[in-house]
Structures are given as C-alpha cells and as structure tokens.
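It would be a great kindness if you could assist me with a short task in structural biology. The matter concerns a single protein, recorded as an amino acid sequence and a row of backbone structure tokens. Kindly check, if you would, that the fold set down in the tokens agrees with what the sequence suggests. Thank you for your consideration; the sequence and its tokens are set out here:
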Amino acid sequence: PKVTSIDEYFVRDQTSLNSVKLSDNVTEIKFAAFFRTSISEINLPESLIEIGGSAFADCHNLNKVVLPGKIEKISDKAFSYTVLESISLPASLKSIGNRAFENCVKLKKVVIEDASEPLEIAVGDPVFFECRIDSIYFGRYFSGNTEAIKGNAYFSHAEFGPKVTSIDEYFVRD
C-alpha cells in the first residue's frame, strides 16, 4: 500500500527525530503530525496538497522547507515557532491559515509567487505574526484578513508584482 496521508500526531514530541523522508505519494500532512520534533529541513513531495494545523509547529531546528508546486492549503500555525530563514509560497497556494508562520523570528525573506487568483487569508490573526521579515515580494493580492502581515516592524524592502492592483488599508501594520 502507498502512503498518501500522514496522520495527526504521527511523531509528535519525538525530539530525537531529526530527519524525515516522505513518500512521493503523500498528499496530506495532518494536524500536529511532526509537532515538536528536531527535524532541521524537509523536502516535501510534489504530490503534497495540504499541510494541517501545527503540522511542523515548535520544530525549533526547522530552518529549511521547500513547498511543492501543487500545494493548495497551509493551515493555522503549520510552521509556527520554527527557525525558517526564508519561504516561497507557490502560485498553486489557495489558502493560508492564522499564524501559519507565527514567531518565526529568523524568517527574513518571503516570496509570494505571482498568480492571478488572490491568496485567501483566514480571518483572524495575521499569517506572519511576530516574524522579523526583512524582504517580501507580493506576487498577488490577498483576500480575507486585511492585516495579514501585522506585527512586522522590520521591513527594509517590499516589492509588488504586476498582479497586485490594490492594497487594503492596514495590510502591513504593527
């Protein structure tokens, strides 16, 4: 049988786990599947469509993630409290949850790839709350939460791609 889903709490709190290789058939990683493990990087399979809430939260060594080109959903707090240094959100991404990258204090560079459709931001808390983003590229506009980048007073560079035609009030706010 081919593994297509990683269950909730799969290896939660296994602090000795520092390396993971996922099957090329995995389409979903469920809630808190790798919560509070010691993995430092993960290559997500191209088949992956959805990352559940807190899936990689509190992985204090996680500094590198490459999101696949088919990913459609990143849920609440999926990568919160990690040490990611950069992240590129692919054009395939349709929605992203509250505080998905909360308190990623080493997150310096964010790229939101160009796409015609808006990126749906969960109404509630900001996606990048309490990060230290230095540079961000907006390749499309957001819908939903108009304070998606709240709590980031560290920007030195922001660039808007050709698909961004308007910016909501309070979009980037402290």
